[in-house]
Specification:
With about 290 residues, the chain is of the alpha+beta class. It folds into two domains: about 150 residues, DNA polymerase, domain 1, CATH 1.10.150; about 90 residues, Intergrase catalytic core (hpI Integrase, Chain A). Helices cover about 40% and strands about 10% of the residues. The strands form three sheets. Strands 1-2-3 form a three-stranded antiparallel β-sheet, with helices on one face. A three-stranded antiparallel β-sheet has the order 4-5-8, with no helix packed on it. Strand 6 and strand 7 form a beta hairpin. Helix 3 runs antiparallel to helix 4. The radius of gyration is 25 Å and the shape is elongated.
């Protein structure tokens, strides 16, 4: 039986599509195989493409012992293949990895990222406990995916041994306005559509992304209901944050009157229009 050599594969840039590609030989068939790593915009240098490609080396050598893989290699493969689809969620995961995790743990082998060391690192981070819990969560996801891709031996996830006290709690109590305080606040907002947006936020209890994602077609004036079915953040249309967020909410007649008043003066009043469309882009306006 011919001995199979351990292969590293190769990385090249597809000049037509501007996409980095990892290539290797399938020893079982002799065929050349390839895997898309990412676009030039996502991976600006070949050095980064090579680091990302190292996460695919186990795939190219399925009969060999799992090689040593750095945390950064596993993290970048996770970001390429397993990142949540929701824009804001994936952005938060990527920010936590790029800003906090990779500068400290990226160069270490996965097996060298020890729970006790990570626990002590969390104690030194000048961040809210909830933020630390988010960082721990995404590190856990990297280990899970590394095991799935056979970059790391199957075992108990090291991050499961770490506890973030108060990670599910907010540092500050929410500020709850009384009717009188809200009335005084509303007196200071005279510009539309911001006045109507604040009224909708207070009456329906929506996230600002859900308010920005409203269209006139979402409203059923006869049944006095509104269907919350999308969100908009940074002019990107996305799904709502949770399954429970996608719901029908009742509308008070007074709020209906306010909304219809705004529709009567807005240049974007067709059913398919965004309620708060920007006159400059004819799309969702910013809420910040």
């Amino acid at each position: 039986m011919k001995r199979q050599h351990y292969q590293r594969g190769s990385v090249y840039m597809d000049p037509r599509r501007k996409v980095w590609v990892y290539r290797w030989t399938d020893h079982s068939t002799g065929a050349r195989r390839s895997e898309r790593l990412g676009t030039l915009a996502e991976i600006p240098t070949k050095a980064k493409a090579l680091r990302l490609a190292s996460g695919f080396v186990p795939t190219a050598n399925p009969t060999h012992k799992t090689p040593i893989v750095t945390f950064e290699t596993a993290a970048r493969r996770y970001m390429t293949e397993r990142m949540p689809k929701r824009f804001t969620t994936s952005g938060g995961y990527r920010n936590n990895l790029e800003k906090h995790v990779l500068p400290v743990w990226g160069d270490l082998d996965l097996g060298a990222v020890k729970p006790l060391a990570v626990h002590r690192w969390f104690l030194t981070l000048p961040l809210a406990q909830k933020t630390k819990a988010h960082i721990k969560s995404v590190m856990r996801q990297v280990f899970e995916y590394a095991m799935l891709c056979e970059m790391f031996e199957m075992q108990r996830n090291p991050m499961d041994l770490i506890r973030i006290e108060g990670g599910t709690l907010t540092d500050k109590d929410p500020l709850i306005l009384t009717p009188e305080q809200f009335s005084r606040l509303l007196q200071q907002i005279v510009t539309e559509p911001y006045r109507t947006m604040v009224l909708v936020a207070m009456c329906l209890g929506l996230r600002r992304s859900e308010i920005a994602g409203l269209k006139w077609s979402d409203f059923n004036w006869v049944d006095r209901q509104v269907l919350i079915q999308r969100s908009v953040i940074a002019n990107r249309v996305d799904a709502v944050k949770t399954k429970k967020s996608k719901a029908r909410l009742p509308l008070d007649p007074a709020l209906i009157a306010v909304l219809k008043d705004w529709r009567s003066i807005s240049e974007f009043n067709a059913d398919s229009d965004w309620i708060w469309a920007s006159p400059w882009v004819a799309g969702p306006c910013r809420t910040t």
